[in-house]
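Sample entry (543 residues):
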Amino acid sequence: MKKLVSLLCALALMAAILPCAVADEEPITITYYRQELNRNSVATYAETAWVQALEERLNIKLEIQGPASSDDYNTAVNAMLTSKKYPDLLFYDWNTQYNGGILAGVEDGVIVPISEIPEYKDKVPNWFKVLDEHPEVRRGVVNDDGSIVTFCHWEPNMARNAYWGYAVRKDWLDRLNLEIPKSIDDLYEVLKAFRDNDANGNGDPNDEIPFSCCNWWGTAHPGMDSLAAAFSLKVNTIYRDPQNDKMTYWTEYNGGQNFKDYVTTLAKWYSEKLIDVDAITQKYDAWAAKVTGDKVGVFFCFPDSVASWEDGIRQTLKDQGYGNADDVCIYGLVPLTGVDGVPYNYDNDNALVSYVGSNQPTVITTAAVENGHIDKCLELLNYLYSEEGSELINWGVEGVSYTKNEDGTHVWTDKVTNDPDYPMSDAVFKYALPTLGAWPKAMSYEAWGAMNLVVPDQITTHKNYAAGSSALDKPGYSLTIEEQDATTPLTEINTAVSEVYVNVITGNKPVEDLDALLTQVQGMGIKQVVDAYQSGYERFMSR
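Predicted structure, serialized as C-alpha cells:
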C-alpha cells in the first residue's frame, strides 16, 4: 500500500495547486457504479427529486452505471473490474466478492485508501467525525491494518433494526380474560387457551390455530426459530454466549442441554396441536390467509404488516358477520423471557448490533484521482453525511415531499401520501430514500418510521420488538483466509441439525435422537468452526 499511497499523495498535492473551479463552470460528471433504483414508481435515480437537488447543490451530474437488476450485479462488477475501466465511485461487497478482500482491492490499485492520505481524509470530516464519536461504527469499517477506505450507511438509532418478532391477537386475549404473555411459560398457557376456547368468537371452538408461521425464506423453520432465543439459543449460527462473551453454537451451548430442552418443548407443543401442522412447509400466501382469516392467535410478524393484516381481519369479521371489527388488535410482544430470565431479541441476523452497513460499502476508485474528480467525490460523500445532506436523502426536498412542524419534526406531503398512481411505499421513492440503506448516509429513524409505523399498533409492536437484549448477538468478526476455510463445515453441520431438529419437532424422529445428534455435530468439526469465529470476533473487537 505504501507505493500507492505515495503516488496518490503526489497526485493530491498536484491537485491542490491547480486553480479552483468557478461557480459558473459546467457540472462535473461523477460516475457511480451501483444497481439502479428500479422501483415501481421510478426506474432511475436520475429521475428522483433528491438526486436532482443534490446535483444542483453540488454542481455535479451523478451518472449511475450499474445494471437495473441485482441478480447479475456481482457478475457485472467483476467484468468491469477485469476491464480496468473503473468508475469514480463503486458500490461492492469487497470482503465477500473480491479475491483477498478489500485490502487486496487497495493493493491492486483499485481503491483509494482515504484515511491514509491526509489531503483526502480532511475533505470528508463529517464521516470521520461519525467514526470518532461512535467506536461501534468505526469498528465495522476499519480494516485490520487500521485503514478506512469505505463509506456506508450507519444507524444513529439501533431500534430501527427491530424488524420482526411475534405478535398476538390482543382481542383474543381480552375475550378470554388473559394477560399478555411475557415468558415462554406464559405463552404456553396462552396457546392452550386459544386451542381450547372459541378465541375468535365465531361460535366454533375448534377452528383456532394457536401458533402459526411459514416457510418464509425457503428455510424449513424460520417462524419457529425465534422461539429459540428464550432458551438462550440462536438457530444454526455462531453467536455470543451471554454468560462469558465467547462464541458458541446452539448445540454446544450449556453442553447441549438448552438445545434439547428447546426442541423437546416444540415437539411437545406440536404434539398438543399448539403449532400449525402446516407451519414448516406452507408458503407465505397460505399462511397470511390464515392470519387475515381470523384463525391464528400468535404468529411471526413484521411491524409494517400490522395495519394491512388488521384490515384483512376486520374484513373477515364483516364478511362472515360476527365479532366487532373495531376490537381487532395485533400486539407485538416484547421478546419472551426464558431460561436465563432475560428477554433476548429474536433477530438471527444480528441486525440490532449492526451499527453500520459494512457489507454495503462505497469506495472511491483510483480513476477519480486520475481524471481529477477526487475532490468532487469527497465533497459529495461529505455532503451526504451532513445534516442537510441527510435530510435530503431521507426526506427529499422541503416543500415538495415533506414539510416541517414547529418542533422540527417532519411530515410527508400529499405528493407522497396521496399519489394518484402508487401507494405511499412506492411513491416516496420518487423523492427520497427513507427506508433504503446501501448509500453513504445516516439512516433516519423518523423517516423510516413515517413510512412503516403509521398506526398506533405498529408503533407499539416495533417498540416492543426493540425492547429485547442483544446479548446473544455478535457485532461482527474479521476472519483470515485460513479461518474462513476452518468455518466451511458449518454448512453441512447446519443441514444435519435441521434434518433432525424438524423431524423431532414433528414427531417423525424420537427425542432420543438428539443425543446422537450432539455427538455427530462434534465429530463434524464444530469446535474448529467456533474457534475460528472466536478469533475473528476478538480481532474485530480489538479494532
